[in-house]
Write a structure and sequence with these properties.
The chain is an alpha+beta fold. It is 49% helix and 14% strand. It is built from 10 helices and 7 strands. The strands form 2 sheets. Strands 2-3-5-4 form a 4-stranded antiparallel β-sheet. A 3-stranded antiparallel β-sheet has the order 1-6-7. A hairpin with a 2-residue loop joins strand 2 and strand 3.
């Protein structure tokens, strides 16, 4: 069981993680130090057993299925890459995931277990990190930290715009193909990009509110309901615009 857990509140708020997912990220940021590696599709992944997560984080997890759903969620929001092979879960940190505990300069990486005060950012940023020791919350000692370094703002990655459909493509290729065949040709390139942004935002909100789980079939049906509603609204706008065009000349005739 892991006794010391570092939770980066600032990152958790940004990515809408609950405390369980935050604890899981704390474990995954050190995955290379305890998990077995395996090369998949030319990239190094780590075998992360669901039962191992429960063993390490008994306060946060009791069921393997919950761990699995949180693996999927972290993958969907771009913090980890997820693969399965022979019924085993393999994960690797993405570039965003690797920046999870990084403060100060963009090139500085700070691990959960070895925080170097000389590389830390300003006090307002550090105050957002807490360290959980035997389930008691202790803030870092700010007097030993250097507040002069600036925090680099990490802007939203454009790849996040298509998270929901990318997840569906990886999780359920047949459902993804069905969705694309039914609806893709009803959008222009710009319209589809705008639709994906709105869909992803809607799904992330519903997942954070526990109204939806990142499971292929659920994402498919939610995306389909959303696209039908979206297209209905767009058609209504076009119809209203056409009516206004037709009414305008009539008004001019009566006015004359």
């Amino acid at each position: 069981m892991r006794f010391n857990i570092v939770i980066n509140q600032n990152r958790c708020i940004k990515f809408k993680l609950n405390v369980n997912q935050a604890a899981l990220m704390s474990v995954l940021t050190e995955v290379s130090s305890w998990a077995t590696e395996k090369v998949i599709k030319g990239k190094t992944y780590w075998w992360v057993s669901r039962n191992k997560v429960i063993e390490q984080l008994p306060l946060f997890y009791e069921k393997p299925d919950t761990v699995y759903r949180h693996f999927k969620y972290l993958a969907a929001i771009g913090l980890v890459d997820y693969e399965t092979e022979n019924r085993r879960d393999y994960l690797r940190l993405t570039e965003k995931g690797k920046r999870w505990n990084k403060l100060g300069n963009e090139s500085d990486f700070i691990s959960n277990s070895e925080m170097n005060p000389s590389e830390l950012g300003n006090e307002s940023e550090i105050a957002k990190q807490v360290k959980v020791i035997d389930f008691k919350v202790v803030k870092p000692d700010l007097s030993e930290m250097n507040p002069t370094n600036n925090i680099i703002t990490i802007t939203k990655d454009k790849s996040e715009e298509n998270d929901a459909l990318t997840f569906l493509q990886n999780e359920s290729p047949s459902l993804y193909e069905t969705f694309m065949m039914k609806y893709r040709n009803r959008f222009s390139e710009a319209q589809f990009s705008e639709f994906c942004i709105k869909l992803n935002s809607k799904i992330q909100i519903e997942v954070s509110q526990r109204k939806l789980e990142f499971v292929g079939v659920q994402i498919f049906y939610r995306a389909e309901a959303f696209v039908l509603n979206y297209l209905g609204n767009e058609n209504a706008k076009e119809s209203k615009s056409e009516i206004n065009k037709d009414v305008a000349p009539v008004r001019k005739i009566f006015k004359g």
